[in-house]
């Protein structure tokens, strides 16, 4: 076997690094006896470009004839067998079982800059690239270019950030993305590396931040070239990148990364940093961190190395992009996830809050008013995370909550008749709770136009419904505007404080105050009727006497021709105490509706 003898300096960066003179290659394979790089540049010959071994188990070569666009692989000899492997750090691949592709180092970012919104102003739109933008009868997945055409709709809706479900190369063309086969490569069916960069650039040009979902609790398990990468394994395990004992087991296969091995820790850290540096994303959402910090998800055995890895990655994100958000999907109400790493916390900016979504969904999906618990809803509204309300992400729909045996909220209420009055009323009531409770609100693609059924990775959104239910879209737009105080009428919704001061379980009513000032001069009052009866002259306490304007009434006929437009436009609170507050007012509460009120300006 010939070894490359070029005098060009070796770039100690694993993967492939293109220069004007050729390409540097590096790979970690400590148990290999020999390694070659093969590809279009050497007729895929094992004998053309052997790699030199370093003491740390990495292998290096420089190939003068290689250039961007060439396909390549690593050929590893382990004992008497040859193993053909995709570069674990390939930025592009032909497909998950194909070849790596050498990528050009440059992209015309123009004047692109990070878009980092203050967390208390954020509204997240969760998006699956493969289904968000194509026609319902298309057989191929949508692409980043298709998703770009959705961005103007999001700007009109008023959201601040797009959260993409995972886009790392996965098996096949249709997937949720939580089965990363080539974690450093962007899914080719979506448009690959250039497609993602163009999407981020277009989002930033519209003032939208981009948060990317990443999967570090397992790899694969399908089409996984990391499996026994250099031929070594123990106990029938997966080799150098994975645990090789009971810690390998996850709900998705025996492919949990070995968080204690320095090279694997660097692999994951470098992957996270890549999305920020090479793709300009503005934040990361970590899939199911529970299986990074525990073996079985039940806490019987912790994984300290997984915890310390999360700390390292979160610290690196803040070092490189101060203010960027990292979000944990843990769903266990563990406040240590969002505590600073200096205090022993994992350092995440926020976490998905399961204690919000489940009571709220249950309350609006229940067919019988007697089966709704105002106490459960109130508890869901009230809980902040680590004293900071904006360290939790709250929602009534997410990719998990509308699949795996569960459907979209309108479908859960009325089956296929998503335009049914009950489906419209109660699904939008759930959304109103999301946008008026303290936390970072999130909606799932299509929620704003009553997308029904359940989420599938091969079933596109029906964008015709955005026109059919344009009033519902307007309601979501108005809810976002209220939440962000875009009209200067609802400043209290930007605050941390929440006081559920009125709770009537018998009539399914609750009222709460939102503010961020001790004197409550920025107060917003929210009245919720989770019953099917209109309630007239219903008396509720107010924090101060005077005229209060109804800034949003979810029963307005502006939102649906089936809505009745009941409820006041304004109320006058009198100087009579009630509900522990100094004033009261009587108002009409429409069925299955939310009223948002704030003091009239002088």
In short:
The chain is α/β, with parallel strands linked by helices and 602 residues long. 22% of the residues lie in helices and 23% in strands.
Provide a descriptive summary of the structure in words:
A hairpin with an 8-residue loop joins strand 20 (509-515) and strand 21 (524-529). Helix content is 22%, strand content 23%. It starts with 14 loop residues before the first strand and ends with a strand. It has an eight-stranded parallel beta barrel, surrounded by five helices. It is built from 13 helices and 26 strands. Among the domains are: 15-101, Immunoglobulins (Immunoglobulin-like, Sandwich); 491-599, Immunoglobulin-like, CATH 2.60.40.1180. The chain is of the alpha/beta class and 602 residues long. Helix 8 packs antiparallel against helix 9 (374-382), helix 8 (354-365) runs antiparallel to helix 11 and helix 11 packs parallel to helix 13.
Beta-strand segment tally? 26
What is the typical, i.e. mean, pLDDT? 95
CA-based gyration radius: 27 Å
CATH structural fold name of the domain at 491-599: Immunoglobulin-like
* Superfamily (CATH H level) name of the domain at 491-599: Golgi alpha-mannosidase II
Structural class: alpha/beta
Give the strand order, joined by hyphens, for the main sheet.
Answer: 9-10-13-14-15-16-17-18
CATH architecture of the domain at 491-599: Sandwich
The residue ranges in which pLDDT falls below 50 over 5 or more consecutive positions are 1-10
> Mind describing the biggest β-sheet?
8 strands, parallel, barrel
């Amino acid at each position: 076997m010939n070894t490359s003898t070029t005098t060009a300096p070796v770039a100690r960066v694993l993967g492939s690094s293109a220069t004007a003179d050729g390409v540097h290659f590096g790979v970690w394979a400590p148990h290999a006896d020999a390694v070659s790089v093969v590809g279009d540049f050497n007729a895929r010959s094992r004998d053309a470009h052997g790699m030199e071994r370093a003491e740390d188990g990495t292998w290096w070569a420089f190939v003068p004839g290689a250039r961007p666009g060439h396909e390549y692989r690593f050929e590893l000899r382990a004992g008497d067998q040859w193993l053909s492997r995709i570069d674990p750090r390939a930025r592009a691949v032909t497909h998950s079982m194909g070849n790596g592709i050498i990528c050009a180092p440059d992209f015309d970012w123009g004047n692109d800059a990070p878009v980092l919104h203050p967390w208390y102003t954020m509204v997240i739109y969760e998006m699956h690239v493969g289904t968000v933008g194509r026609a319902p009868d298309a057989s191929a997945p949508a692409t980043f270019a298709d998703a770009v055409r959705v961005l103007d709709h999001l700007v009109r809706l008023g959201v601040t950030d797009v959260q993409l479900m995972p886009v790392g190369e996965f098996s096949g063309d249709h997937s949720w993305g939580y089965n990363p086969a080539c974690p450093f490569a962007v899914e080719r069916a979506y448009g690959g590396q250039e497609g993602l960069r163009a999407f981020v650039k277009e989002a930033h040009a519209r003032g939208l931040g981009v948060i990317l979902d990443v999967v570090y609790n397992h790899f694969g398990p399908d089409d996984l070239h990391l499996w026994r990468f250099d031929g070594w394994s123990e106990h029938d395990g997966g080799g150098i990148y994975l645990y090789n004992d009971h810690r390998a087991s996850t709900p998705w296969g025996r492919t949990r990364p070995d968080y204690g091995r320095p090279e694997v820790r660097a692999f994951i850290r470098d992957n996270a940093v890549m999305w920020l540096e090479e793709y300009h994303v503005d934040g990361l959402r970590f899939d199911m961190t529970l299986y990074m910090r525990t073996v079985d998800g039940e806490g019987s055995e912790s994984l300290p190395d997984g915890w310390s890895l999360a700390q390292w990655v979160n610290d690196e994100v803040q070092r490189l992009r101060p203010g960027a958000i990292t979000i944990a999907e843990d769903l266990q109400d563990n406040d240590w996830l969002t505590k600073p790493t200096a205090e022993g916390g994992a350092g995440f900016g926020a976490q998905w809050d399961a204690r919000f979504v489940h009571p709220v969904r249950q309350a609006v999906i229940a067919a019988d008013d007697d089966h709704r618990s105002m106490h459960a809803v109130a508890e869901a509204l009230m809980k902040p995370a680590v004293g900071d309300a904006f360290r939790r992400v709250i929602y009534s729909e997410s990719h998990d909550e509308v699949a795996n045996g569960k459907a979209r909220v309108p479908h859960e209420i009325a089956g296929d008749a998503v335009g049914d009055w009950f489906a419209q009323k109660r699904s939008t009531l759930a959304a109103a709770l999301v946008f008026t409770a303290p936390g970072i609100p999130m909606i799932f693609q299509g929620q704003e136009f009553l997308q029904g059924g359940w989420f599938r990775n091969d079933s596109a959104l029906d964008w015709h419904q955005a026109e059919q239910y344009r009033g519902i879209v307007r309601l979501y737009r108005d809810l976002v505007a209220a939440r962000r105080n875009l009209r200067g009428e609802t400043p209290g919704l930007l605050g941390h404080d929440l006081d559920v001061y009125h709770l009537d379980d018998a009539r399914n009513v609750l009222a709460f105050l939102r503010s961020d000032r001790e004197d409550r001069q920025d107060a917003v009052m929210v009245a919720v009727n989770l019953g099917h009866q209109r309630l007239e002259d219903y008396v509720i306490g107010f924090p101060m006497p005077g005229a209060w304007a109804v800034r949003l009434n979810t029963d307005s006929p502006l939102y649906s021709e089936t809505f009745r437009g009941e409820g006041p436009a304004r109320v006058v609170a009198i100087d009579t105490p009630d509900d522990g507050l100094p004033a009261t007012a009587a108002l009409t509460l429409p069925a299955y509706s939310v009223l948002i009120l704030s003091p009239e300006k002088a």
